[in-house]
Amino acid sequence: MIPQNRRITIKHVAKEAGVSTQTISRVINGRPDVSPETRQRVLDIISKLGYQPSELARSLIQRRSCTLGVVTAGLKYIGPSRTLNGITTKAEELGYALLLKELPGFSSNEIQPQLQFLLARHIDGILWAVPEIGNNRDWVKEGLTGIPVPIVYLTMQIHPDVSVVTIDNHIGGEIATRHLLEQGRHRIGHISGPMDWWEARQRNQGWQDTLKKAGLPVTEASCVEGNWSSSSGEGAFQQLLHSYPDMDAVFVANDQMALSVLKVAHRLGMNIPRDLSVVGFDNLSESAFFWPALTTINQNQLELGGQAVQELVNQIEVFQRNEEVTPRNILLSPELIVRESSVVEK
Amino acid sequence: MIPQNRRITIKHVAKEAGVSTQTISRVINGRPDVSPETRQRVLDIISKLGYQPSELARSLIQRRSCTLGVVTAGLKYIGPSRTLNGITTKAEELGYALLLKELPGFSSNEIQPQLQFLLARHIDGILWAVPEIGNNRDWVKEGLTGIPVPIVYLTMQIHPDVSVVTIDNHIGGEIATRHLLEQGRHRIGHISGPMDWWEARQRNQGWQDTLKKAGLPVTEASCVEGNWSSSSGEGAFQQLLHSYPDMDAVFVANDQMALSVLKVAHRLGMNIPRDLSVVGFDNLSESAFFWPALTTINQNQLELGGQAVQELVNQIEVFQRNEEVTPRNILLSPELIVRESSVVEK
DNA sequence: CTGAAAGCGCTAACAC
DNA sequence: GTGTTAGCGCTTTCAG
Fold first, then answer.
1. CB of A235 within 8 A of CB of A241?
2. What are residue B12's phi and psi, to 5 degrees?
């Protein structure tokens, strides 16, 4: 490939058309005040030269880049990717470009450099799409003042001072547990995600609250903590079988761990769902093909990402009119997908 | 949030420090020709004001943005996400920002607008991370002249005129098939991916070539086409059992379809691996927890993405020195992960 | 309808 | 060491 640097600029077009650069600018911006003949001539030359206006130069002078900064983490997992998928789709629809940053780990607290990096590139707003873990959200309560663009946070505890778009994991836990109760199960165990994850705590709490509301006890013995991986699910389930031998159902905080529950149960000669009803969480595309097909909670991460972009863009528009931006919290409800692992045929 | 537009510029810093903007520029670029006192004073003011140089303005004047355009597709699937994960990690390491575009579908042939979009933002190079399907690469052979920045393509047939970084799927098919031969299997069937996918054809070809090299016949009856989904795997396997009843092993082009093979086999009372050895492809994190644990081919997509970025950045450096860029093809070998589904204990 | 001048925020190239 | 000038590619403002 032979280097041929130097891009075609508005000047080249102007010269070729024998008009000033302002006229070209008017044409490419669809302004009405250009004579039809001039406009046509300019358009012809633009396409002949293959001229492409520089969004960079535009961003500089217009003080808006139509670019969103996206900070994510854990793209190798399917959840964050699905969310990003929703983000790209909606951003495309609204005509925004995306500058992507992935944190090296979920709990990175190198916040400031990330924000600076994005701000240096004049992004119009920021989407913080990193799950809330441990104290990786502490900065939200403080640092807010310094950031000169709107931010929307995904997947964290809602908070009146900032905009949050998230799946309601508590409801997810409720729905799963209620479904098991409806199947006539009353001794429902739980394998949770790592409890420093906000999502894991919410799912756990939904399970607890539903049991309590039904007048059923929640004991320490009925819950074991996993770390989301199938491997951890194996150990957690064995421990749970031990500590809660009466258990007739289990709500597992994600499908990967639920897969191990199915496997271990099979190995032990248990029949699912007859001996034990199982409900997972996440609705992996494989879950419908586990044995038995796994009942699970589906979170619409595509929608999640889309709504977050929409909300951020709304805020940006308000912000750029120099009006006060009011934070908004958006909670999306997950839904139950009933399959074989939880329902005993009558 | 109260709008407080107007960013702090180099001028503000210059004024505050009582020097010219040029001096500030020298300080932030670490140039040696500034007196230690001036430098310190400027640095203090920069941190006091929280000044952040505009990469946008820099990009404009330096004719390099340190930004790569990434075009991807199918982020809701794990493969593209893992690759993107590799891309973000390496880009971060090399100090490049990423502008992300996701095509609405795998086979979109709206190429030109995507390229224009990225070029308008002065990206220094492009990573085309969309799998080769049908004729969605035809443009590569032509359009090359028009694009004023280096491009690296991922996951496609290598081609002497362009830079391609890809997993060698043919070898993947070979390794899988050879492994089955080594287990003493000689009637090895294949469930392929959709044959308009280059990757599917390569895996298929690797299977065919290995059988032929071993002096074994490859018949039409021994291969059925799926569409990557578990659901399609179900039908394909049933068809294959019918058309190739003697089959003693099957190489399945991805783990999702292989999952269905395991399930159907189980339902039919077949014992895997005794009655049928199964090898998948992709190494999903769940595959180790299928019943039986699935032997599969692992492709290191993290590495793939990383190498692609590295290669692109190398090219960019050459290109910006105005030297001729020579295309390079990089082929990564996938590796066999042996688990229970293919090996009969002696 | 069209053009000239100024400037977005920065740096290259030169002066002193 | 430091300042001045010019300009990256575009749009805004104001003249005409």
1. no
2. -60, -45
* Cα angle: B246, vertex B248, B254; to 5 degrees: 120
Site of tokens 């701000």 = A119
- Say how far apart CA B94 and CA B104 lie, in whole Å: 29
User: What separation, in Å, do the N-terminal and C-terminal C-alpha atoms of chain B show?
Assistant: 70
Q: Which burial class, exposed, middle or buried, applies to B25 when counting CB atoms under 10 A from its CB (0-12, 13-18, 19+)? A: middle
Q: Which of B223, B217, B337 is nearest to B288 (CA)?
A: B337
Sign of CA dihedral A147, A149, A154, A157: positive
Report long-range pairs for B213-216 (Cβ below 8 Å, ≥24 apart).
B214/B181, B214/B186, B216/B186, B216/B188
**Cis before B327 (ω within 30):** no
Which residue in A57, A97, A231 is closest to B99 by CB distance?
A97
Asked if A99 and B101 come within 8 Å (Cβ–Cβ), the reply is no
pTM over 0.90: yes
Q: Are B99 and A96 in contact (CB under 8 A)?
A: no
Same domain, A196 and A92: no
Token digits of residue A327: 């934070």
Instruction: Give the residue among A317, A330, A328 at the shortest CA–CA distance from A163.
Output: A328
> Residue A344 domain-assigned?
no
Closest-CA residue in chain B for A77?
B78
Cβ–Cβ gap A56/B56 under 8 Å: yes
Q: Which structural domain, as residue segments, surrounds residue A270?
A: 169-299
Cβ of B5 < 7 Å from strand D?
A: no
**CB of A306 within 8 Å of any CB in chain B?**
no
Residues A25 and A137 in one domain: no
Residues sharing a CB contact under 8 Å with residue A61, sequence separation 6 or more, in sequence order: none
d(CA B277, CA B342) in angstroms, rounded, equals 4
Q: How many domains is chain A partitioned into structurally?
A: 3
Residues (pLDDT < 50) of chain B are none
pLDDT in tens, B163-210: 999 999 999 999 999 999 999 999 999 999 999 999 999 999 999 999
Q: Are B181 and B146 in contact (CB under 8 A)?
A: no
**Residue A95 to residue B60: CA distance in whole angstroms:** 22
Using a CB–CB cutoff of 8 Å, tell me whether B268 touches chain A.
no
Which ranges in chain B belong to alpha helices (H)?
10-17, 21-28, 36-49, 55-62, 78-94, 111-120, 138-143, 169-182, 198-213, 230-243, 255-267, 301-320
Looking at the DSSP assignment, which residues form a beta bridge with residue A102?
Answer: A72
| Residue A164 and residue A306 in one domain | yes
CATH number at residue A16: 1.10.260.40
Q: Please give the Cα distance from B108 to B138 (Å, whole number).
A: 12
A165 - beta bridge partners? A154, A330
A35 Cβ nearer than 7 Å to chain C strand = yes
Task: Say if residue B194 is in the same domain as residue B159.
Answer: no
Q: Each residue of A112-141: pLDDT tens digit?
A: 899 999 999 999 999 999 999 999 998 888
For residue B262, count CB atoms less than 10 angstroms from its CB and return exposed for 0-12, middle for 13-18, buried for 19 or more: buried
Q: Which of B1, B52, B77 sits opposite A120 (nearest CB)?
A: B52
Query: Does A146 score more than 80 pLDDT?
Result: no
**Phi (first) and psi of residue A335, to 5 degrees:** -135, 150
User: What value, to the nearest 5°, has the Cα angle with vertex B86 and ends B82 and B88?
Assistant: 110
